[in-house]
Amino acid sequence: MVFACQRNSFLKEFESTVESCKENSIVTVFNGKKIKLNGYDVILQDTIIFPEGGGQPCDFGFINDIRVENVRRVGDKAVHFLDKPVKEGQSVLLKIDWDRRFDHMQQHSGQHLISAVIDRDFGYSTTSWWLGQDISHIELDIPNLKEEEILNIENVANEFIRNSTPVTVAECDTNDPILKEVRSRGLPDDHTGKVRVVTIVGLEDDMCCGTHVNNLSQLQMVKLVKAEKGKKGKVNLEFLVGGRVIKQLNTMYQREQYLTNLLKNSPSVHADLVEKLQKSLKVSNKSLQSVLKDLASYEAKALINTVPKPKYFCSYRQDADSDFMNIFIKEVGDEDILLLLTVGEDKGPGQMILHGKADAVSHLGPQICDLLEGKGVAKGNRFQAKVKNLTRRDNATKLIEEYFE
Ligand SMILES: [Zn+2]
Questions:
Q1: Distance between CA 392 and CA 289 in Å, rounded?
Q2: Whether residues 112 and 43 fall in one domain
Q3: What is the pTM of this model?
Q4: Phi/psi of residue 138, each to 5°?
Q5: Taking Cα atoms as reference points, which of 357, 380, 359, 354 lies closest to residue 369?
Q6: 76 and 152 assigned to the same domain
Q7: Ligand 1 centroid from CA 286, angstroms
Q8: What distance in angstroms lies between residue 105's CA and the mean position of ligand 1's atoms?
Q9: Looking at residue 47, which CATH number applies to its domain?
């Protein structure tokens, strides 16, 4: 069956009659999690709410103001999923989420245009395509695509748009000899009825069930973003069409304005400024590391020279790292002083090392580690762990005090 939305992709409202309404549940993805929805499968005499097909995701919309969460194609029927029932035989008003549909039409017709230009001018064939939420891609049967080829394809595709090239749709019988001439990736196994051939006049004929624009001027423009290595020996060409080009441009301008405010200079020098900042940060980090090493040696020496020799010593530093702790332990070089060293965020995650005599380390290490919500094991005279929370490090000191009492 050919649905009303395929005969006229620009219908936004439509009246139809309910053929059947049956209770059902579907599994859908919401906020990245799979959830089960209970509701009703509704089949109508005809529909403008497109079920997914030809790489195009399904439409959303309303049937008598009841939201259509999903439409799927089963054989030649479109099955609408609703959270409330409608009566069989009832006449209903359909409305579609036009913003979503028109975006899908722009991306899908844009894909036909780009694939056809690539095939005609370079002979590379499209093996599949993906209409993504933000960006879409075409998979090409070649290992890479050169920068000048991408520019060339983009220019030619946009010329077809500037020339307001018409797009037509013909419905053919499955045995029509014309179908041997058109581009096709085959029909679904459960296909019945007429076959649709979508033609970009003067460029290509493509067997497709999707909803398309009727003139390429409705695409506004095509932007080819980049080509990336795909599956074995293939390349994925990312693209944006129409409204998505403007949306992306707006996002990029806002980001650029934010950077201009942060860097206090014009966009033309942003890259240079960030490079300079990165270099100077590297130098600062090196200096900080060297100062921390000196400090570790200095503090270790002060500890060694303390009279009488202390039984234990606890130290915490926010900016230091494991290098600082290791240098400190090496410089002290005395297992008789039990060392508890912690580094990291004051009331957040960090690292700990307990160093000293093996019996003290194996006794106190796991207890202190639990206090600081970490995981680690004692190895001889050392217990080292990454910890989640350094807030209770004073309680750890108390544990050590009690141990030596
Ligand atoms: Zn298509």
A1: 27
A2: no
A3: 0.78
A4: -110, 130
A5: 354
A6: no
A7: 56
A8: 10
A9: 2.40.30.130
